[in-house]
Amino acid sequence: MQATNVHPIKGDTEAAMKLSVVVAVSRNPKAAEAIKTYRVVLDGLDLSYEILCMTNPDATEALAGLSKLTADWPELTVFERRPWSGEDGELATAYKRAKGDLVLTLPEWPELAPEELNKLFDAIDGQDMVVCARDNQPIGGTRQALMQRSFRLFFGHTVSDVFCRVRLCRRDVLEEIGGFGVRQHFIPVIAASRGYRVTESQVKAYSGEVEAPKFVFKPMGHLRALFDAVTLFVVLKFLYRPLRFFGSIGLPIFLIGAIYTAALLFGRLFLDVPLADRPALIFSVLMIVLGVQIIALGLVGEIIIFSNSRQIKQYKVSKIIKGDGKTAREIPQTDDD
Membrane-spanning regions, if any (predicted)? Predict the structure, then answer.
């Protein structure tokens, strides 16, 4: 296979750009072969690059194969983590070690044809993140549709190929999103929710022989994924306005309890309906108390946010353009912008 140079990324200084490739190897014994298929393309880039490979200490065969690759591949660095904190946790660790202006995530098995990586670098121009959509990969299926609907419900955004783990993004995107400590499948939709420009690139799936991981139903794992999605929904939507979240729950409970209590008291005062054997009164009063407590939690959250409002940045300026009467130029940003 012939190396194909990537076109220089417009709007960026090519000499200053560097690429960090991050891979988390959990259980694939042939991970070294999968990563090696991308070397020709990576060596043909117009960017200097590094590969950070986080490995599970239990994957001894994969670790041995990767160790052999490092002998004649100086850009490859292998990290053996003990204990293994899961693929998502190890990728988050790799993001912190990455030094490149661009970060490319690859799975431990090939998901797309190696030459298709060039399309990602072409598409990153003017964008913050490029995700892959495999055009000859079956996009349908119950799991895919369920994930897409869940993402659209929680975050208002989704991608065509939810389970494709190949994506290229700018480093500052991961620096902000990494603070959420989320699963990697959530990264594109979270980036879109935070206002970053996310685009898709149609690519061809890997056509060679590959033993991709099979779907295994794990009730607790899927339940944790649901809790992660709910947590992210609350954080992204109501982090700076906690009273809106707690109020939307507590106010209906309070109103139902108040209306029911008023109806019981009206019956007792004007219709001579006894309340001594009516447990509904206790239940309605408890609803009032519960509603007040939930609303009070929101008020406490508002006080905490207000007291720390000077240290909390609710937005980030992506670009500042100013003219001098003749031409317009982009002003370098600072941390205070």
Answer: 251-270, 282-306
